[in-house]
Amino acid sequence: NLELITLLTKSGEGKTIPIPFPQFNQITDRYKKGDWKYSYQYKMAELVGDRGEDGKEIYQDILELKEENPKLDTEDYLSIKKALLLYDWIGDKEIKEMEEIYQLYGGAIRKLAEGFSWLADSLAAVAESLGWNKKENKKEELTGIKILSERLAWGLEEDGLKLARLHIPGLSRSYIKALLKEGFDNERCMAELSVEELAKVLPPRLAGRIKDRYPTVLSPSAAENYKPEICNPKPAICNFSPKTSISRQHTPNTNDQRLTTILEIDPHRPDRIIFQGKEIKVTSKEFSLIHLLAQHPEQVMSYDELLDKLWKDEEDAIYNRVSFHISKVRRTILKIIGKSKINKEKVKNIFTVVSKRGVMLKLKAEQIKIN
Predict the structure, then answer these.
(1) Beta carbons of 6 and 83 less than 8 angstroms apart
(2) How far is the C-alpha of 272 from the C-alpha of 335, rounded, in Å?
(3) Of 351, 314, 310, 303, whose CA–CA distance to 330 is shortest?
(4) Would the pTM count as exceeding 0.70?
C-alpha cells in the first residue's frame, strides 16, 4: 500500500491535488532550515527502512537514499507529505492526531483522500485495460489497487470495509473503528447485537438507526446475553504467572542469559565493524557514527549532538544525514547476516531511532568491545 500510495503522489495528477504547506520556513538554527520539509523526508526514510523496502526504486529519487545531500523540489517534499498522510489515513491514527502531525484540518485531509481514492480507482481501470484481470499473476495486485481506492475513500484498514459498505448514515470512520475494537466487523453483527449493546459503543441515535435497518433476530433478553462467534469479540487478557509467561531463553540464572559480544569496533580498522562475529564493511562516516554511539551505549544521542561532532564544519548539515547512515548500516548488516524477520527486528532494535529526538545503540556495555 505504501508503494502504491507513493506512486500516486509522485504522478502528474497526484502532484496537482493541492495540500496546504508552511509558507515560511522556521530558521532557528543551522539544523532546522526548511524543517517542515526534512521532517517528512526523514519520517518517510524511517518508514521505508522499517519495512525493509529501502531497495525499491519507487523511493530512490524522493528520498535520495543514494545521495548524502538531498536536493529536492518543494513539489517533491509535498509528495512525501501526501504519501505519509494518506498512509496514516488508512491506518489506525485518529483524525485529531493527524491534524496535529500534519497541521491540517480534518476536512482538508478527507478532501485529499477523496482525490487519491479517485486516482487509485483510475489506476485500477488502467490496469484492467492492460488485461490484469485476465492474468493470474496480476489479479491479486489489481484487487489490491481496488481495495486501496475504497480504503482511501473511507480512511479505514481493510477489515473495516465490510461495515463501510453498509452505507449507514452517521456511521463514520471513527465509529467504525470503535466497532472494530469491540470485534464487531460485519452485517451479521449489526443484526445479532441488541440496541443496548450497540449503544455501549455508539451514540444511542446511531445505534437505533442501525437496529431500524437490522432488527435483532433474537428476543431482547436472549440478545443481551448472546455473544455471536462471527463477531470476533476482543480476546480476554490473561494474567499469566511469571513461571509460565517467561520463555526458556529468558529464564533467570541460565547459561542462555550470559551476555556475549555482539559488536566489535577497532579504531585502527575504520573500514569495518564486527557484528555477531561477521565482518561488515562500512564507510568512514558510518564507522565514526557507530563508534560514537558505542561510547554511549543505551543512551539517546540527540541529532544536534551527533551533527556537532560528526559534521561540525558543514553549515547546512541536517539530521537527515544521521538517518541516512543509520538506514544504510542496517541494510549492510542484513545483507551479511540474512534478511530474516528475526534479524530485521533485532537490527532495528539495536540501532534504534527515537522519533524527533535522536539515535541510540541499544546494547549493554558488556555486549560491545572496542579494541
Answers:
(1) yes
(2) 14
(3) 351
(4) no
